[in-house]
Fold:
Amino acid sequence: ASLWLHLGAFGPRRVVTSDNGHTPAAPYQLVNNDQSLLDASDLVFIDAPGTGFSRIAGPDREKSFYGIDADGHAFAEFISQFLGRYNRWNAPKYLFGESYGTTRSAVLANLLEHDYNIDLNGVMLLSQILAFDLSPDRVENNPGVDLAYELALPTYAATAWYHHKLGARPPADLGAFLGQVEHFALTEYAAALAQGAMLPDADRAAIVRRLHEYTGLPEDYISRADLRVDGHEFSKTLQADDGLTTGRLDARFSGPDLDPLSKGAQYDPQSAALGSAYVSSFNDYARRVLKYGADRAFKPSIRIYQSWNSQHRPPGARMALPQTANVLPDLAAAMKMNPTLKVQLNTGVYDLATPYFQGVYELRHLPMERRLQSNIEIRTYQSGHMVYAHASALAELHANAADFIRRTENPH
Structure:
């Protein structure tokens, strides 16, 4: 559901949560949101079908809603009907998607352009994932595709820096340090992984040492992992000597290990730290203040992984492709059909779920003319997946989003 952006970032009210630790149990504090985006735009929060107070119905309802393409069509139809019902056809139009909402936004931008003749002024992406092969989550099930390890490495380095795991003399300048790690990831590290079992022992030992210097992980662990550590393993291992699991959505968070002997993280400390505050506050706000939903259950999310259709038909394809989802062609098609479309990527350096360098890499590899890259801007924050969970990052996010809207509205 959309309550996270609603109560965390841009809505008129905001729930107060701890910055990098577990928010104490209720009562929670809901305050006027000084960073609401209402100063720059009207806001429409759309809950995914079946979440929030919405429910799906009809024959083949799961097939009709639960899949990349079905979901995109449902959102496109809702947006088209909304514009008509509320006479907003001639208003500037923007999409703001977070996490899977970035996948949806890429699909939607193309659908709205191609099927509905709706030009968007801009697309704002928060914590992007457009090419799922690049995800660091359990990438060991996809041997031979090493790029995910390379793109996650700068986030591992930022996390180790934050938790003081880089030795007695850590880098003073995080930005410069991450630039160094990014270069290593796409050069020496990439070349080493590409050699697979043919990597010479001396070269292997040198890469192990560099990975230890950048991640704080023990050299023996890195060697036994064959130079490849996925996100869940990193979350479990970085602070294992302290009995702590590192947050996945926001690596600034930590929590007690659920199973000290597990290979990977058993839960996400950030989700555990903030979930109750958001869900409880939204239920109270909707029922007590907005006077809505008194007799209805609110669902912040629904478990549909096994029924979700991940196959996607990209622009120009005759059918859905039997491959891992990749919607880079969709966003590129929308930008080619509407060459005035602007895109803003917002990403947190402590996001282990959708690493910031993965987002940068994806946008650099959109299949389109190079000149259209000038329509893309990237904003990075000292925060995690929910960038707005860090107060100073929320202020920056608001300033960047509001500025993006004001710069991309058609002055005529």
In short: The mean pLDDT is 96. The chain has 13 helices and eight strands.
